[in-house]
Amino acid sequence: MKSRYSHMMGQISLDKQAKEVMLDRLNQEEQQKNAERIGHIRKLTSIPKRAILAACLAGILAIGALAASLSGGWAQFFGGVPEGVSTPVWVSAKSGDYTITLEETIVDQDGAAFLISLKRTDGGVLEGEPQLYGMRLDIANELASMGFDYQAPILSEDGTTIYYCFQFKNYNKDIEALVGHEIIIGYQGVIDKNWTEEEFEQIKLETVSLAPLASVLKQSDVNFSLYADMEDPNFVTAMDQLNAIVVPGSLPLSKHGEKGFSLAGGILSQDGMTLALALYQPEGEIREENYLTKWADIAVLSDFRTGKSVGTGAQWGCDPGYGITLFKLDRSMTTEDLPYLEATVQYDTVKLLSDKPFTLAFTVAENGYIKEYILNQQVEVAFRGFGHRYDFHATALHISALELQLFLDTIESTEKELSEETSCKLIYDDGEEVALKGGVSLSVVNRLERDRYLTFRPVENVLFEPDRAVALQIGDNRIDLK
Asked: I need a labelling partner for 439 at 20 to 30 A (CA). Which of 178, 339, 342, 388 fits?
């Protein structure tokens, strides 16, 4: 059932392995977003239309915030780049009135960072908040299986250039090294993130009463919760019951096409504390002038008798063609309460500045600088995400500008309960310490020996300087690098 109800994964063009990697991260981010939404809604005594608009618009504006006081490529993201780490590329493409350039790359054995700039082709000051849209990355003519890390874009001091920096790590085991492979970065076009309140309300929001759904709003004989295990029998039963009663077009929404979105039904948990609503999603994209709509979400649920929010929700995907939003209600309800509720739908609509797709392609000529050390040391380590302490034998260490990989040949779990997470840091020749996050890939226990490694990255946005490293400190274990 997990593939059937996966959270939006069916909408993302990645292979199965990459989707699973991203799914955990997306679920964590979604929980954080909903926690923030709960905190905001609880402060409201009522939800007039303008308040709903302001709350939704604030998220868009926050994402688009740019640092106008900075300028100059990599330095804006990392504060500086060690000599010889970056490779110039300078491959450009045009999309409408814009020129997009892959300026430089930082490449290691199985990952890379890209510095991309967006400018007006005429060299003028950028207006609005232009942003690259709809990314795809291919390696060796195949969609990349990858981990992905993206930093917020930064506007140059003169207002003519937006810089983008993103990193990826290749998870395709058929490609042992990126050297010799062509990497193609593609985008669908350029969008404007700047929305006025009036425009946001007219295009992206729609509030409707649930009263017309009375015939397809039912109460389940089981309980399920907002963050239920997707394989939990009660959750599966409730979703099956919802699928059995939904009727596309039960409550048509008036925006974005005659055969567009509609609320199609709902299921209330047995205890009346969780409500799942189905929102029918038409196939494909809906284009209206310079607006493109792909998805919709029920953002707010309120009781028009009181004007107050009655809960907060999280969106799930459900094939075929339905988006399901689960709401944790602030009080127990019955089906008699549901017709008094109103749902505010927020459309995933972008405002196009250019719909001309483009690609940036280059071939990796050589790996970036990697410092390698042979080791022979036992290390004890603990990482909270895995809930265990481990004892392992380290055999090698590879340090690139982007990450640190610690290789091992044996690993043994020593404790099931984790009392304190091991702190890790890289020490430079002048005593400077770089705090590390990671311990990623502790599933190494069942891997082939060549794939057994732990990956670390800096806590702060800095690049490693391999030639300055003299030691790796993992808890009480100091590994001197010679």
From this structure: 178
Cα distances (angstroms) measured from residue 219 to each of 106, 215, 275, 310: 55, 11, 9, 17
Q: How far apart are CA 109 and CA 374, in angstroms?
A: 17
Q: What is the pLDDT of residues 96-105, one digit of tens each?
A: 999 999 999 9
Sign of CA dihedral 82, 83, 89, 93: positive
Burial of 71 (0-12, 13-18, 19+ CB in 10 A): middle
**Chain Cα centroid distance, residue 42:** 26
Specify the amino acid at residue 44.
Answer: L
Q: What gap in Å lies between CA 91 and CA 102, rounded to an integer?
A: 5
Q: Residue 204 corresponds to which tokens in the numbers above?
A: 């992206």
Say if strands 286-288 and 142-143 run parallel, antiparallel, or are unpaired.
Answer: unpaired
Q: Is 158 exposed, middle or buried (0-12, 13-18, 19+ CB in 10 A)?
A: exposed
- Cα–Cα distance, 392 to 10 (Å, whole number): 38
What's at 28, amino acid-wise?
Answer: Q
Residue in the block written with tokens 């995933």: 348
Low-confidence ranges of the chain (pLDDT < 70): 1-72, 141, 144-148, 172-174, 176, 228, 257-259, 312, 317-320, 382-389, 413-421, 439-451
Report the distance separating Cα 477 and Cα 392, nearest Å. Answer: 12
Q: Which two tokens stand for residue 257?
A: 């096409």
DSSP state of 126: P
Tokens of residue 425, six digits: 């840091």
Tell me if the pTM is above 0.85.
Answer: no
At 270 the pLDDT is: 93
Say whether the peptide bond before residue 339 is cis (omega within 30 degrees of 0).
no
At residue 210, what are phi and psi to the nearest 5 degrees?
A: -85, 0
Give the contacts of 351 (CB within 8 A, at least 6 positions apart): 191, 192, 193, 195, 203, 290, 291
